[in-house]
Amino acid sequence: MNRERPTDEELLAYMKSPTFRRRSARMQKVVSDKWSRGEQVSFDEIADGLKLPLDVVVGGFAHSMSKTFGVELVPVGRVQ
Question: Are the C-beta atoms of 60 and 46 separated by less than 8 Å?
Fold first, then answer.
């Protein structure tokens, strides 16, 4: 997103949209295909593909890993 950072409300609305669901499904396939070829995908690539700020993608990954492994992460505020 090439403008000021979207508000949390704007991000939430976008992440509930059909457009985001399509991009998410496409990125899951890209990540899976690259992984099967032994290639890595960066958080930057994922953020660009999903049209989300990088910190949202990294935060989502950290949240998923903490739930998966049962490890509590220290919450970090948004960088202004």
Answer: no
Burial of 43-66, coded b for 16+ CB within 10 Å and e otherwise, reads: eeebbebbebbeebbebeeeeeee
| Domain, as residue range, for 46 | 8-69
CA 28, CA 34: separation in Å to the nearest integer? 10
Residue 4: pLDDT above 50? yes
Q: Please state the domain count of the chain.
A: 1
Task: Assess if residue 12 is contained within a domain.
Answer: yes
Number of residues that make up the chain: 80
- pTM here is 0.76
What dihedral angle (degrees, nearest 10) is formed by the CA atoms of 68, 8, 25, 65?
A: -10
d(CA 58, CA 76): 12
Radius of gyration of the chain (CA): 14
